[in-house]
Request: fold
Amino acid sequence: MTTKSAALMLTCFLQLCIVNGQVICERQMTVEWRVEPKPSVIKWTPRENVCSDFYTECWNMNKTITGEISEEQYVNIPQICPLQLQLGDSLFIASEPSFQSYGMNLVNVSKEEFINCPKAGFLQEQLIFVCQIRGLHQVNSNWLGVGTHYFAELHMRGPLLCNMGLRLNVTVKQQFCQQSPNTPLCSGHGKCLSHVWEKEYNCHCFSQYSGRFCQKIDVCSTKPCHNNASCTEKSERSEDSYECMCPPKFSGKNCTEIVGQCQPHACFNGNCSNVTPNSFLCECDKGFT
Reply:
């Protein structure tokens, strides 16, 4: 080994030792679908954005919340903060300048190889880039189809940086929030959302609306019928498309009127007076009977 290469190797190992501690990955538990795609840039370095603890660091959540996470997903390994993209987003890898001189590339690996780091040779088709990483590189959209993808550092020479955290899992999600490409998301009556552990985006409807695309008006959900009346939706779709089945002694559109009590216009030409809880009397104006 030459003096120059030995110095280079020593420099690399020293830089690996100067890691700024573990990172808490910033993320939202629920994300709304964006109409326009956006680019994401990942710094390919073990010194800034590497997490280790699956719950508290990589996903920034309480360890007691385990109901949505299977044992297969739970893996404590150093890795670049897991990334979630929506279908159509672009991904750029910005390599660490100090590591460029000894040659690096990314390789598409299985989940097992992601966990244990690649140790064998790989086919040319598995390489993410056609050349070694230097500067900023865009990941081809062919590698960003729907699903979870595992990328790991493939060293040409020098230390194996994958074990230090140079590996990334990327989940790409699509949305199922439109009846057709030209219709509004969730029919304009809801939000297109995805929880961090969900595999896709789906509609979460506003009040009064239901259905996969929030296309149905659910008027009865607002409980328009009073006094223990039952609500039934009509076939027509409008805000007035419901009918109240009133219990005894109540009537009216929303079962708010008491049978036998004065109601608006109960007396055409005169004043109405309640006599008993279920009877009233009209005091007629002069000239009317």
